[in-house]
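sorry for the late reply, my laptop died twice this morning and i had to redo everyting from scratch. anyway the thing you sent over, i finally got around to it. pasting the sequence first so we're on the same page, its 458 residues, then the predicted structure underneath. double check i copied it right bc i was rushing
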Amino acid sequence: MTSGSNPAEAVESSVLADGTYDVVITGTGLTECILSGLLSKRGFKVLHIDRNPYYGGACASLDLQQMWKKFCLSGSIPEELGSAREYNIDLIPKFILATGKLVRILVYTGATRYLDFKLVDGSFVHTGDRPHRVPSTPMDALRSSLFSLLEKNRCRQFFGFVQSYDPEQVTQRGPDPRTMTMRALYDYFGLQETTRTLIGHAIALYTNDAYLEWPALPTIERIKVYAQSVARYGSSPYIYPMYGLGELPQAFARLSAVHGGVYMLRTDVETILTDTETGRVCGIRTPDGREARCRFVVGDPSYFPDLVHRVGRIIRCYCILRAAPAHIREASSCQVIVLHRAVAAERRNDIYVLVLNSAHRVAAPDRYIALVSTVMETADAEQEIEAGLAILGGEANILARFLTVDDVFEPIHDGRECGIFVSRSYDATTHFESTTEDVLDLYRRIVGEELMFDDKPV
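ok and here's the structure:
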């Protein structure tokens, strides 16, 4: 993609769609589609384009034939896998916290009318021996086999404090999460190192330990959201859309269209047009010479290679299983977080395992879909995900698998000066909290204020 001058100074060209918009959004990944819906609802005139003939971008859901083609596999699809059309394999598989930020956005926008959800059966953490259900309440702590008798009591006290803590009640006795770090709060309750890692990574859903030096209150709020999500349905904090995550971008696309948004697939951007006086974006030009004027441009990193830098790589291994993994057969769909400390002392990143089956209409009957993902730390992708693949039952239970290593990009500037706002690549986690944080941050930078949710129950 190149930069060009003000279209008013360029040679005459044809108009793209209606010609003038508030914002042009490039790419139909989930981040971009949520923003399209939010901005359209806000009153922005939106043009949303994608170079592909389908919605979803990096978040698309593919059938088995499409997976075979994407990964350049030779030969026909084995009959034991079942019908190729019965599969909807997410390229970026993630679950949705039942009371998390994405659900709040879905309720706020009304996009839920275009979607059907089903509960995910369980959330587990692997600490070295086998997967255990993630505890999030005082009673869970007492029942869990993860902790010693003494640690159970300490966890019970910690979760009890979290449940009862109200930042508005300034006269509360005990530790003050507003003024102390999370490390200091853990110290106050005397929690062991493995317990701290479990709480921070499997409940608060942080991807590293930087949060330990931050004020404790945001972590307290994250733990509460997780516990509330479990309480919503009783057995798991996560829900998942029927027919795969590819349904989410399409739901927000429909929402945007209801509010006047215009969508154009098979439409690429060749040139970003800028005002020669201000240097700000003022439009886009397609390869066939059509132009649209706008105040802002939003897009995923693939459209703006000069405006992003690589910050890491993610290993993703998509597997089709013969049967449910042995240690989690009680849950036909689930998340398992393999804590980094359980893999190797020197490892810094957790390994995420996600399992789904035909109940969510993403696999053939009696077959399971699994994803193993993690941040790449060495040059050996296969070795790094061994601990995750072992949970699936090893090669005897894996009928087919597809391995990829994807670059992770972040924008090099916040977009306020030039008017070009670039989203971040999707991370290795199996939940959408980081994605929705990116959406809300982009919204704040574009609109100039926070998104204020209606006081509707979620």
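Confidence is low (pLDDT under 50) at residues 7-11.
thats about all i looked at so far, will dig more tmrw
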